[in-house]
Amino acid sequence: MKIALITDQHFGARKNSKLFHDYFLKFYNEVFFPTLKEEGITTIVDMGDTFDNRTGVNFSSLKWAKDNYYDKLRDMGCVVHTIVGNHTAYYKNTNEINAVDLLLREYENVIVYSEAEDVKVGDIPVLFVPWINVDNQEKTYKKIKNSKSKLVMGHLELSGFAANLQCIMDHGDDKKRYSKFEKVFSGHYHTRNFQDNIYYTGNCYEIYWNDYNDPRGFTILDTETLEHYHVNNPYRIFYTIIYEDTDYRNFDFSQYENKIVKLIVRKKSDKKSFEKFIDKLYSSNIADIKVVENYDFNGWYSKDEIKKVESENTLSLLNRYIKESEIDLDKSKLSKIIEEVYQEACEMI
Q1: Residue 293 sits in which domain range?
Q2: Other CB atoms within 10 A of residue 290 CB
Q3: Residue 311: its pLDDT value, please?
């Protein structure tokens, strides 16, 4: 039996942006649903953060999620096992009040897990582990210790794993706690990475610049062989363009329609030609553009260093500043606070 693992869908992201929801829908309609039908998959495990804003849900985004996702899965006869993540728990210290339980009760095919629970998925026992907090930590750790399940599927914050391409988390739970299980799959971190028996499967599409040029999609697991593989999302929303006196007459602007673009200027000899290039870019109906003028790249940085600077975003810059600073504070805790503040600020933009 094959099942689909999907995580960190963040419906309502970027302040309920229509641009992003249209981008999300392209993934569901052209990748996710067709693959489910082709593979005969009728069981989905949602590993958390289904909705983006833990304190409230926009009615328009909720309707979008029901019309374009939950109604379709119900009509396809799919069962959805949904784990509470940190973005869907209203309070930070308990999962008791959560968005997926309150908003999806009309769907008999959606089963919500706010506490750790052993469940048989197909013929294999799975321990579902939702977001661990002060309220459920002791009970969850006891459940993990006593569980006889082969697999764990959860929304875990483990130390030593990559949260994105620029940041390795140096705080969180110890992965040794899960060493007895054959495989552990988790949401929460948006980039795919694994160590030993633990796999962060990554989220299904780009949402922030720190997702740029990082494979996205969902995962298919065979419950009989325990083999799994990723189904990539070929669609992106973030793009970079390197401008080096680039001739606008020979440049394909059409691919950037409804995209968010970072234009990195390395060489600009003719101001009028550059302005014409910008005009052509705007006329292609791009969603947004940021111009970064970096003339010092030539001869100063290696290709790897250039790639790193070009892909850096606000959060990674802040984390790098904290890491390199000489402040007499717990840097891991400070980075966590900064990350939470940054994500909440993004919800307001």
Answers
A1: 237-312
A2: 11
A3: 47
